[in-house]
Design goal:
Oligomer: single chain
Order of helices and strands: EHEEHEHEHEH
Number of helices: 5
Mean pLDDT: 90
CATH class: Alpha Beta
Number of strands: 6
Strand content: 15-25%
Distance between the termini: 39 Å
Amino acid sequence: MLNTIGIAAHPERSFWLDALQRCRPQRIVEIGFGASAPSVAVDAWLVAAGKSHDPKRYAEWLRSLPAPIVLVTQQVGAARPLVHSVPKLAIICHPLRAECELHDMLFLAAHRSAGAWVLDASQQWRSTLRSVSAM
């Protein structure tokens, strides 16, 4: 069961908020992307970055979030070095994968003891997305 989950998403805020609501947490705490974390305790953060967001540019803000983080970004490779500088970073994940496994990722992040997972999307998923986008 997910208790309180924080979310900061830009630019697809409504998409990720809907996905988070389907996970049925008891409470959702929403902040703007890059905004200060509220004083409300959360079990995990869902941070969904836009396609053009460079992960290194918001590393300092990620360090300010006080609970484990699931970072959803299309720039998984560029975000990988953040596991060494953002202690609360639990999972870095491509949006295609996060959409399918969001509940599990948030649960694992909230209950992690150490380390981080980096989960990219498979080539097959990426190829499918490219062919659908071309239509």
